[in-house]
Write a structure and sequence with these properties.
By secondary structure, the chain is an alpha+beta fold. 17% of the residues lie in helices and 32% in strands. It is built from 2 helices and 10 strands.
Length: 174
């Protein structure tokens, strides 16, 4: 009996590991992310990966606001933003569509990995400082500090939305 229970427990480990997302009220973090609130990730900085996307910003240090609109055409307006390294931006996003959309800041690798997870668990809820989910007609904001030059992406990870082009890019200059 003890062996059978052990085998069942071991066989459930991959399911439990994937189930870390907020599926039915459970919290999840994007791949490579810390579970600590307010931290984007614990990965080393550099390259074009997650370490180069920035960190949650301090609202008292916002240097400017950027308005972003999302709608059912599966596009962000604007679809590109230029910021300077070190700038803290307050993004104000408005969903003018008839379905739920979201704005998730990250490396393309992390966004694709998270989108894949969203396909597996479509009811997933988000509680990360780099993401914002808006129902039709809602407006919301997030504050992000772009601390290194490079390219940073944001996308809507609702299943199917990123795949049809709901992606935008932030160019972080010196």
């Amino acid at each position: 009996m003890k062996t059978t229970l052990t085998l069942i427990a071991i066989s459930l480990l991959p399911t439990l590991a994937l189930g870390g997302g907020n599926h039915g009220g459970q919290h999840h973090a994007m791949p490579g992310r810390s579970e600590k609130p307010g931290y984007m990730h614990d990965a080393p900085r550099g390259g074009g990966h997650a370490g180069n996307v920035g960190v949650p910003g301090n609202p008292d240090e916002v240097t400017r606001a950027v308005e972003v609109t999302m709608d059912d055409s599966m596009r962000f307006v604007p679809d590109s933003v230029v910021v300077k390294a070190g700038e803290t931006i307050r993004f104000f996003a408005r969903n003018t569509g008839t379905m739920t959309h979201e704005m998730v800041i990250g490396s393309m690798a992390d966004l694709k990995a998270h989108a894949e997870m969203m396909h597996k668990f479509p009811g997933m809820e988000h509680e990360e400082p780099n993401m914002l989910t808006l129902k039709p007609g809602q407006r919301g904001g997030l504050v992000w500090k772009f601390d290194k030059p490079g390219k940073v992406d944001f996308a809507c990870l609702i299943p199917g939305h990123m795949e049809v082009g709901m992606i935008a890019q932030v160019t972080v200059t010196e």
